[in-house]
Amino acid sequence: LDFSVQEEKKNEEKQIIEEELEDESFVYRIKEMTPRGIVYLTYIIAENEDGMYIIDQHAAAERINYEKVLKSLKKQTIPIDLLVPIKIELSQPEFLVIRQNFDLINEYGFEIEDFGLNTIIIRSHPNWIPDDIAEECIRKVIDIVADKKKFDFDQFVWRMAATMACRMSIKANDYTSYDDQIWLLNELRKCENPFTCPHGRPTIITYTKQDLEKLFKRSLD
Ligand code: ZN
Ligand code: ZN
Predict the structure, then answer these.
(1) CA nearest 72: which of 143, 2, 13, 125?
(2) Distance between Cα 200 and ligand 1 center (Å)
(3) Are 164 and 134 within 8 A, CB to CB?
(4) Residues pairing with 47 in the sheet
(5) Which residues lie below 8 Å from residue 83, measured CB to CB, with a gap of 6+?
(6) Distance 149 CA to ligand 1 centre (A)
(7) How many Å apart are CA 22 and CA 140, to the nearest integer?
(8) Distance from Cα 220 to the centre of ligand 1, integer Å
(9) DSSP E strands: which ranges in the chain?
(10) For residue 82, which of 126, 113, 117, 144 has the smallest C-alpha distance?
């Protein structure tokens, strides 16, 4: 091994270790909660020493996935080839907007080309999008880009991440096991902004012990 390659390898290893350390140093924004049940297959009821919590399982999962997607968007994305490329026919104005933004979209790990006659063809998608929702996500990305009259880069990234997160997340009325619930609550606690979904809906409603005592007028006994 020549020296520069060795150095490079060392630096790479150092970087990986640093990234791992960085991951361990997250701050929990909510104290540990214990799930106590689920209502309407949608709302997890949980508690800790401070109070009682009602968590919307979709909104919470969406927040978790949203932050993960944003993180992966910042890293280099690896394009994955589709087995069958997807052709999408667009209106002419949509097609023109999309064509103008090919480079931008492709920078995020998509491979989109002009297929003629207001049609585009998609050959690959970024590795962090699960295969089974790839087509849906691509269509959403196209909608987002085509819908913007004046293109705003940051908005594009946020909307794309929010849309992906929504598609990737457990839905209301989906069954969650006790372990799923524990995982969900813990991941939510690690989020930078655990209290709302990327669309601004609340993920968690809190009743402190004092709130409950007041509601039940316990001080009157
Ligand atoms: Zn959603
Ligand atoms: Zn949402």
Answers:
(1) 125
(2) 11
(3) no
(4) 34, 52
(5) none
(6) 24
(7) 32
(8) 43
(9) 34-39, 43-48, 51-56, 79-89, 111-114, 119-126, 204-208
(10) 126
- CB-CB neighbours of 29 under 10 Å: 13
Distance CA 180, CA 15 (A): 32
- Nearest CA among 68, 60, 81, 63 for reference residue 23: 68
| Nearest in space to 37 (alpha carbons), one of 173, 176, 208 | 176
Q: Rounded to the nearest whole angstrom, what is the distance from the C-alpha of residue 146 to the centroid of ligand 1? A: 21
Q: What is the pLDDT of residues 186-198, one digit of tens each?
A: 999 999 999 999 9
- Nearest ligand, CA 199: 2
Residue 21: predicted pLDDT? 47
C-alpha 60/C-alpha 101 separation (Å) is: 32
pLDDT tens digits, residue range 115-151? 999 999 999 988 877 777 777 877 877 787 777 666 6
User: What 3-state class would DSSP assign to 212?
Assistant: helix
Look up the pTM and report it. Answer: 0.71
Task: Report the separation in Å between the CA atom of 160 and the middle of ligand 1, taken as the mean of its atom positions.
Answer: 12
Cα-to-centroid distance, 34 and ligand 1 (Å): 24
The Å distance, Cα 193 to ligand 1 centre, comes to: 16
